[in-house]
Amino acid sequence: MDYGDKEDFFMEFGADYGYPNGPKSIDEIRATEFKRLENGSVYLDHAGATLYSELQMEAIFKDLTTNVYGNPHSQSDFSTTTCDIVREARQQVLDYCNASPEDYKCIFTSGATAALKLIGETFPWSQQSCFMYTMENHNSVLGIREYALSHGAAAFAIDIEETVDHDGLSRSPETSMNVSLHPVQRRNEPEFAEIEPAGNAYSLFAFPSECNFSGSRFTLDLVNVMKKNRARILENSPSSQGHWMVLVDAAKGSVTQPPDLSKYPADFVVMSFYKIFGYPTGLGALIIRNDVAKLLKKTYFSGGTVAASIADIDFVKRRQGVEELFEDGTASFLSIASIHHGFNLINSLTVSAICRHTTSLAIYVRKMLLGLRHDNGASICKIYGRLSSKVSSHESGPIVTFNLKRPDGSWFGYREVEKLASLSGIQLRTGCFCNPGACAKYLGLSHLDLLSNIEGGHVCWDDNDIIRGKPTGAVRISFGYMSTYEDAKKFIDFVKSSFVLLPNKTANGNLLIASSIPLSKEG
């Protein structure tokens, strides 16, 4: 289908787009809750940070100006009010992931990154431990590797590819995965391996529920595979012995598909609230299994985490509650009070409807980009992600990551695209998005390429977008619950007018806008 106008779009996506069964249509939401976008701005970086609703902020302001919230470590009535709000917020987070409080606790942190750091520094590493993670992981997950290696543990990345039958259907997770291992060199070789048998060691497997580079979703069945049939992934490796725990980075994935912990009992899940409903920033959560929390080894103690301490002798008695033990200092209680209003907003639309709405826009943009051709018939766009099955499936999140090509097959630099988009009032993101494994995988960059680029001076966020004819990153657009067809259409029109060479346009004429800014740097 051409999708030349909104009517064509609605013929295929009308059932999913715009909350037809919700309390408000998408047009009403934009008109009443996002009036600040009426100036024509197109915001397409929801994977970086989604936008807060004006009505959401009004509710938060009314709450904070009506109620008095005291420090939860005090004993006043206002402190009791705060404790009640924090307790209710914890339950809302657990409910969002269908996690029973009998099995899980919610620990508030300063963000998903802080939650991941907490796991890394308290995990019971040993020289027999192993940290395994998928190639497609955020730097904040890769950082856990530092703790593992410093304790003499092994570490390796794995690349998981789905196997599809000849009829195009995927098989069960236990039989449909091709797994390749990429060992990381140990920092400290075990000198006395017999000190602790491998069967007693604790190891950790980490994967994202949704890749923030490509939008590809990982099946949460990986949780059950690692717990019940990990030899399927680890084969005959000695690392398959011992106790394996599973960490799900749901900072991106929980926006449209929060993990159901009643079906996929991961040991750790990390979340970030500004990714879900825009405000507050600087607040995340670590959802942790109760039995696993007892195994973590916390060194530091602080205000709020101790039952008693003595200043001039080596004595400290720690609190026993999971939240009290791991939440250092005074919790960000006003921010925690604010997430109640964010969840109310999301629940009014429902996560499933948000998923369908944002996915419809992403599929539309993918199809439109893949259909664009230069006058010589050459494709203009390379889209990254797992697109082996039908593009109309929901296996990818509301992210479209790509690079654009000239008629001769050479690349437009992603920074060039970003600068032109900004001039057109379109806000998007470019680079590797703090996901080096996915970036290298999808761009086809070898270790030699990566090291050569770094030695040549390339670092994150610079303008070196093409080196030796290869992109060093990509362009990413991402949709939120308030995104509209008009946002997507304006973006497609921008790509057409700025980068597609048509028969009635000369190359210089077609790229006139691009010539007004510096072109990509060649290394």
UniProtKB/TrEMBL annotation:
Superkingdom of this protein's organism: Eukaryota
Name assigned to this protein: Uncharacterized protein
Organism (species): Pistacia atlantica
